[in-house]
Write a structure and sequence with these properties.
It is a single chain. By secondary structure, the protein is an alpha/beta fold. It folds into 2 domains: 237 residues, HUPs (Rossmann fold, 3-Layer(aba) Sandwich), CATH 3.40.50.620; 74 residues, Uridine Diphospho-n-acetylenolpyruvylglucosamine Reductase, domain 3, CATH 3.30.465.60. It is built from 12 helices and 11 strands. A hairpin with a 5-residue loop joins strand 5 and strand 6. Helix 2 crosses helix 7, helix 9 crosses helix 11 and helix 11 crosses helix 12. It is elongated, with a radius of gyration of 23 Å. The N and C termini lie far apart (77 Å).
Length: 348
């Protein structure tokens, strides 16, 4: 008997994963997927596996596509210990991975809840990514994350609501490499959440629905279950796709801006005592968008902190509207105008 036709949802998820894996072995900028400088395919990949439909669909597709390329698939399930039965849920996720012929690991982490972490949700995310990063370094492998188009749309919508600027509206990047050299890929950013569920159903994979994903205490859950459905009803279908397209377009703009900024910064910054200095004339000569990005990038690169828009504009006024004001207190540093320069100095 001929093989049963491949379910469209399974085919869509596999294609997304295939594109991501091929991009890892491509140095060709015209190749589909994120452009990566690494020309050698990895020997193994790590799949972040929560046990939900998104990550299980990703794991199943990765198992299939990786096997065809001689790549070993490894899953990591992080047990945050924040809910009753979390250990059992993590064990079920690992068992599902093993049934897909994936080498499965469960990592148990401790989650802090101090104010410095931004609350328990941020603390859990920080602990989860630390565990995944450790696994990636141990396995010498990139990490595949199961975020979908719906997750991207929610991220952009929350960024709009917070007024946090273009950087937030770019959403999640399909590819990034961190300071430890770990490569993070999100193959499913063009795939709807409904498709991952359909893929799991077609392959007979049972998934776990995290109760936190329905808890209205979290802004993301309210955006998912209340705000986006209202937008779809009132403005018509396709809102999630439109928000995801917005993220993609803004990321393209940001990449162009970043290239311009790095070229500009080389000519207008110089070392200063306990910090760095930027030419006032150069800041004045640039348009506001570029000037503000330069200020933010200089402070972030030199002192490792982020400026709010208000702080950025106050620094910019030292160049564009100076009447003797300053110095300005910023996180970890101060900014003052001196001898035709804006001097950023570490606070003692």
């Amino acid at each position: 008997m001929p093989d049963a036709p491949l379910a469209p949802a399974v085919a869509e998820v596999r294609l997304a994963v295939r594109t991501a894996l091929e991009s890892l072995a491509s140095a060709d900028p015209s190749a589909p997927g994120p452009v990566v400088e690494h020309a050698a395919a990895p020997r193994r990949v790590v799949v972040a596996l929560s046990g939900g439909a998104d990550s299980l669909a990703l794991a199943a597709a990765t198992a299939f596509e990786a096997r065809a390329r001689g790549i070993e698939a490894v899953s990591v399930t992080v047990d945050h210990g924040l809910q009753p039965g979390s250990a059992a849920a993590a064990a079920r996720a690992a068992a599902s991975a093993e049934r897909l012929d994936i080498r499965a690991h469960v990592e148990t982490v401790e989650v802090g809840d101090g104010p410095a972490t931004g609350g328990p949700e941020a603390a859990a995310r920080e602990a989860r990514y630390a565990a995944l990063r450790a696994a990636a370094l141990r396995e010498s492998a990139p990490v595949l994350l199961g975020h979908t188009l719906d997750d991207q749309a929610e991220t952009v919508l929350l960024g709009l609501a917070r007024g946090s600027g273009a950087a937030s509206l770019q959403g999640m990047a399909p590819f990034r490499e961190d300071d430890d050299g770990v490569r993070w890929l999100r193959p499913l950013l063009g795939v709807r959440r409904a498709t991952t569920r359909a893929a799991c159903e077609a392959e007979g994979i049972a998934w776990w629905d995290d109760p936190h994903n329905q808890d209205p205490r979290f802004a993301r859950v309210r955006a998912r279950n209340r705000v986006l459905p209202v937008l779809e009803e009132e403005l018509g279908p396709g809102i999630a796709e439109a928000l995801a397209r917005t993220a993609e377009q803004l990321r393209e703009d940001a990449e162009a801006f970043d290239e311009m900024i790095h070229e500009t910064i080389e000519d207008i910054v110089e070392p200063a005592e306990a910090g760095i200095a930027v030419s006032v004339a150069a800041l004045q000569a640039n348009p506001a968008a570029l000037r503000n990005r330069i200020i933010r990038l200089v402070v972030a690169s030199e002192f490792g902190v982020s400026l709010t828009r208000r702080q950025t504009l106050e620094v910019a006024r030292l160049a564009t509207d100076w009447s003797g004001q300053g110095p300005i207190d910023l996180p970890s540093c101060t900014a003052r105008r001196q001898a035709g320069r804006i001097v950023f100095a570490a606070r003692g």
